[in-house]
Amino acid sequence: MYAVIRTGGKQYRVAPGETVRVETLAHEDGKIEFSDVLAVSGEAGSFEQELGGAKVLAEVVGEGRGDKILVFHFKRKKQYKKMQGHRQGFVEVRINEILVNGKSFKAENK
């Protein structure tokens, strides 16, 4: 059982119980709801045809910033060099439940 969601300009394949790092999102009391669901598969090789009202519910596990990416600009023969760093913020979420067509797929508690 998995779903494909879109957030932060990227697409993620998620399943109940797994943890995913997505770009920084606003969240209230640690709960996030992804309503932009592109595809849902209940079993291997088949997809749900109707996705009206499909949602993915998740809870925030942690927040942070990724590794530093160095951006270096250089123009030869012009004595021009420029170094810049960037660290993208992320939110780590745990997928709790996938809701589609009145069916609910939940994560097993360990």
From TrEMBL:
User: Which Pfam families does this UniProt record tie to the protein?
Assistant: Ribosomal_L21p (PF00829)
Q: Which PANTHER family match?
A: 50S RIBOSOMAL PROTEIN L21 (PTHR21349), LARGE RIBOSOMAL SUBUNIT PROTEIN BL21M (PTHR21349:SF0)
Full protein name: Large ribosomal subunit protein bL21
Self-association or partners: how does it assemble? Part of the 50S ribosomal subunit. Contacts protein L20.
Q: Does the keyword Calcium apply?
A: no
Source organism of the structure? Terriglobus aquaticus
Q: Which UniProt keywords apply?
A: Ribonucleoprotein, Ribosomal protein, RNA-binding, rRNA-binding
Hey, which family's this protein in?
Belongs to the bacterial ribosomal protein bL21 family.
Query: Which InterPro entries does this UniProt record tie to the protein?
Result: bL21-like, bL21-like_sf, Ribosomal_bL21
Q: Which domain of life is it from?
A: Bacteria
Which SUPFAM superfamilies does the UniProt entry name for this protein? L21p-like (SSF141091)
Instruction: Report one GO cellular component.
Output: ribosome
**Function (record text):** This protein binds to 23S rRNA in the presence of protein L20.
The question of whether RNA-binding is a record keyword is answered with yes
